[in-house]
């Protein structure tokens, strides 16, 4: 993939291996990776460019014991923002997270410690979430006298449902472990979330990029459409993806009985 030298990052760190697996780290551990305006700008910069640089998958991880403590409350307090200022902050968050979710490259979040408030909004913009035993999820906005502004009303409600999200926000309820998995906050609960995220990223990266592009953008777009329009869009996407040259060898292998069969482990 293209060189990552074009990025000049202070709050994030980025690296890639020879297979195009990118590791993007939240890098403000002293502030528990709280999302200040500068970090969100860097997320926009990275996710604007990565999909066109040949990245095959992204692991989103964090330095320190916590994934992300959400909105930088100290910055928000110091800035003493007006409503229109914060609306613009929210638009920047949406830009960053939409670029992640709709960018067409698989993003796997390797979680640990606090995944709270805006941190959960960030994690819910990834395509797959992997938790470890230390990971916990909460929406403490109500207790802070705030409201979600980074897309939780769409993405967290989508993961856990409206009633659970309202409960989390009204009461500060914290989910972790098997319960977090069963309500849909993460798809994997493992000892080492980064090792598992890497394994998932490597597996996903073996799919043709066009298939991953569709999986990591079309499904999200279709959720915003009427059933009739989504079905039409699905046929158009499938028309392109299912006839791609990269799938011919795979179909031939199945027809020749040399391809792996789908079986439970
Ligand atoms: C922060 C932030 C932050 C830590 N903004 N600076 N989010 C929250 O309500 C979560 C707020 N944070 C916490 O509850 C705790 O910090 C943690 C449970 C995540 C971690 O606890 P701990 O004991 O490891 O760390 P700490 O001592 O609380 O914090 C260490 C430093 O990180 C300290 O800075 P220092 O300069 O005094 O050392 C903290 O101020 C700093 N820090 N969290 C700013 N969030 C688009 S709307 C989204 C709305 C929301 O996200 S609301 C949820 C906000």
TrEMBL record:
CDD domains: crotonase-like (cd06558). The keyword Transcription does not apply. Belongs to the enoyl-CoA hydratase/isomerase family. NCBIfam families: PRK08150.1. This is Enoyl-CoA hydratase/carnithine racemase. GO terms for biological process: fatty acid beta-oxidation. GO terms for molecular function: lyase activity. Keywords: Lyase.
